[in-house]
Each structure stands twice: as C-alpha cells, then as structure tokens.
Amino acid sequence: MTVSLDVFVPMEPDHGLGPNARLHWRAKASLVADTRAAAKYATVNALHQSGVLFPKEYPIQIEAVIHWKKGRKMMDPDNASAILKSYLDGIADAVEVDDSLFQLQPVEQVGKAPVPGVVFFLSSLQPVRKDDVG
User: What kind and span of H or E run contains 82?
Assistant: First the structure.
C-alpha cells in the first residue's frame, strides 16, 4: 500500500538559490530561510488536509515540477535539482523525517505557468494514518 501527498509551494525558485549564484552569504541565507519556511508551511497544510503521516524509517520518493512564470528561462537538470534543496529541507521539517530518506526523481520544468511555483509529489510504501498512531 502506498501513501502519497501533493504539495504546492506558490513560490518560484529564485536564481539566488542556484549553485552558480554569487550572492552575499546573508542575502542567500535570507532566501534559503524564506523558501524553507514556505515549503514547510505548504507541506504542513497539505498534511493537515490529508490526514497522512509518513513513517520516519522508510524512503520517500519525491517528484518535483517547477512552474516558471512567463519569460523565465528553464534551467539545466542539474541546477534545477540543486535549486530545490531549501524546498526539500522545508518538506523534511514538516514531515519530520531525515532528508537523507528522500529519493528525488528528475525534475520536470514547465514554462509560462499562470501561477509560478513548485509542485511536489511525495510517496512512501509504508503508510501510517493518524488513526493508527497511539
């Protein structure tokens, strides 16, 4: 049995989060903190609405789709994966698992999105429902 969760973070990845960005450390730290918090709160909201809990000891497969606003160029696959690091940290905070359990699949990118942001599809093979937890 598989448990799954869809999370939409309505925050387009900033160039400053990429591995090639040349920002002052404080500016980058602020971007990382804001992105991590947005991902955490979006995930907490999705978890609350679905009632699903992910077990802490099983891998979680994550598929991500970046929706770029009109006029924004898409990134190469390596940079697209790297730019999602702070998002994944926020998801790990919300799900309360170690992010080493995440198995990130190749990132898909879509241009000219009406609402820019990132959609994450999380799935685990060992579900736990709130009703099952003591």
Answer: helix 77-82
Tell me how far apart the 2 most distant CA atoms of the chain are, in Å.
50
Rounded distance, CA 57 to CA 8, Å? Answer: 24
* Phi, psi torsion values for 101, nearest 5 degrees: -80, -10
What pLDDT is stored for residue 5 in this prediction?
Answer: 95
Q: What pLDDT, in 10s, does the model give residues 47-80?
A: 999 998 888 888 999 999 999 998 888 999 999 9
Query: What are the chain's domains?
Result: 3-132 (3.30.1330)
Phi, psi angles (nearest 5°) of residue 18: -75, 160
